[in-house]
Amino acid sequence: MRLLYFAWVRETIGVGEEDVQPPEAVRTVSDLVDWLSRRSEGHALALADLKRLRAAVDQKFVPLDSDLGPAREVAIFPPVTGG
What we know:
With 83 residues, the chain is an alpha+beta fold. The chain has helices at 7-13, 29-36, 41-46; strands at 2-5, 17-19, 54-57, 60-62, 73-77. The protein has a five-stranded mixed β-sheet. A hairpin with a 2-residue loop joins strand 3 and strand 4. 18% of the residues are buried.
């Protein structure tokens, strides 16, 4: 699975993307975020508050409690603001 990070999430983790193979127990986006938060201190800091995160699975915006299914790409980013 390809992970993409944007804005301060990317800056805090220290990479813009990575490939991972989460365990079978990771079934939802929030499961994935929880699992990722244990990868490094940067991951833990960036992913600590689910209320500050949004996600897209295979380029479609989804709630964090959505099933991952056979996702090939997951993007994690802060809420988008208008401008």
